UniProtKB/TrEMBL annotation:
It comes from the Bacteria. Keywords: Membrane, Transmembrane, Transmembrane helix. This is Fumarate hydratase. The keyword Transmembrane helix applies. The chain crosses the membrane at residues 12-36.
């Protein structure tokens, strides 16, 4: 059915495809939520800073 060379090529293909699959799962489930959470925290900090500066400007 398969020659030895074809078998090694098939195993290499399966290995690369599996590594790519798990890398995408890792990126989607860990890195993206971390990135989105950090962006939200930074946005909240910027809004607080803008409100603080606005209050200081009104009090002066």
């Amino acid at each position: 059915m398969f020659d030895f060379d074809q078998y090694l090529g098939f195993l290499a293909f399966l290995s690369i495809a599996t590594i790519g699959f798990w890398l995408m799962i890792f990126l989607i489930s860990f890195v993206v939520p971390y990135w989105i959470g950090g962006s939200i925290i930074e946005m909240i900090k910027e809004k607080k800073e803008a409100k603080r500066k606005e209050r200081e400007g009104l009090n002066s």
